């Protein structure tokens, strides 16, 4: 079961969505964060997602950012006019634009839960690629991969968000910080070096999205070693 913590769900439009969610998905348990509303209680900490109704107000955006910064996955429902106010750096926020369907909200809940599970795990494993978050060690098919700190952070960012497209500007801000004055060419150079160390010569794992950025394209990574002593290569199943 997933404990869905509700913030700002009091007006009829918001509650109509909750009623649909109750009917459609019996794996969800609903808890109102605000005292005085039904189902108000302290849920178990495990498998918890915050659902924040931000439509018509920018105040709940700050609440969403604060909850996500503390490691709780958040699905925020908001007007597109305030989308830029959300802080997506933590990776713990998914956004639904109004009017939102039950199907979209359920999909966002699953997405943010999966991402949070990957990010909070002591190890990130995709096929034969293992990233040990505690020791900063990376191995591929049992072989240790020596990476610089920036290369490690890049790989961790991509592998923690499989399938998600990151713009070069977003990567620059996440890895190098807002105070970095270099251009996005820096990102391309570091991605190229990371690919070379992973032997990702065909760009199958870290995929270039033309004129947009990069993404980790698949969770299924296989390494084929040539008995003749050739270098290992990564391929997508």
Please state the average pLDDT score: 79
Q: How far apart, in Å, are the first and last alpha carbons?
A: 32 Å
User: What is the CA-based Rg, rounded?
Assistant: 20 Å
- Pattern of helices and strands: EHEEHEEHEEEEHEHHEEEE
The helix count comes to 6
Structural class: alpha/beta
Count of beta strands? 14
Described by strand count, sense and barrel closure, the largest sheet is:
5 strands, parallel
The side-by-side strand order for the widest beta sheet comes to: 2-1-3-4-5
The helix fraction, in percent, is 25-40%
**Poorly predicted spans:** 221-237
Proportion of strand residues:
15-25%
Query: Outline, from the CA principal axes?
Result: elongated
Architecture overview:
32% of the residues lie in helices and 25% in strands. The chain has six helices and 14 strands. It has helices at residues 12-24, 59-69, 102-120, 149-160, 168-176, 185-197; strands at residues 2-7, 28-32, 48-53, 74-78, 93-97, 123-126, 129-132, 137-140, 143-144, 166-167, 206-209, 213-216, 221-224, 233-236. The strands form four sheets. A five-stranded parallel beta sheet has the order 2-1-3-4-5, with helices on both faces. The protein has a four-stranded antiparallel beta sheet with strand order 6-7-8-9. β6 (123-126) and β7 (129-132) form a beta hairpin. α4 (149-160) packs across α6 (185-197). Mean pLDDT is 79; it is low at 221-237.
């Amino acid at each position: 079961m997933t404990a869905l913590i509700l913030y700002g769900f009091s007006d009829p439009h918001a509650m109509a969505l909750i009623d649909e969610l109750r009917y459609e998905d019996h794996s969800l348990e609903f808890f109102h964060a605000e005292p005085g509303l039904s189902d108000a209680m302290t849920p178990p900490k495990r498998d918890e997602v915050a659902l924040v109704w931000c439509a018509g107000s920018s105040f709940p955006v700050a609440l969403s950012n604060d909850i996500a910064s503390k490691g709780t996955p958040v699905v925020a429902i908001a007007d597109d006019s305030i989308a830029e106010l959300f802080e997506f750096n933590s990776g713990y926020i998914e956004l639904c634009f109004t009017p939102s369907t039950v199907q979209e909200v359920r999909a966002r809940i699953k997405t943010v839960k999966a991402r949070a599970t990957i990010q909070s795990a002591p190890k990130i494993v995709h096929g034969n690629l293992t990233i040990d978050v505690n020791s900063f060690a990376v191995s591929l098919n049992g072989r240790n991969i020596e990476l610089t700190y920036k290369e490690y952070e890049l790989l961790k960012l991509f592998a923690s968000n499989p399938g998600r497209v990151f713009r070069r500007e977003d990567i620059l801000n996440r890895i190098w910080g807002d105070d970095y004055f270099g251009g996005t060419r820096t990102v391309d150079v570091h991605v190229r070096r990371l690919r070379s160390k992973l032997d990702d010569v065909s760009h199958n794992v870290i995929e270039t999205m033309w004129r947009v950025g990069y993404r980790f394209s698949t969770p299924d990574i296989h390494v084929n070693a040539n008995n003749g002593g050739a270098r290992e290569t990564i391929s997508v199943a």
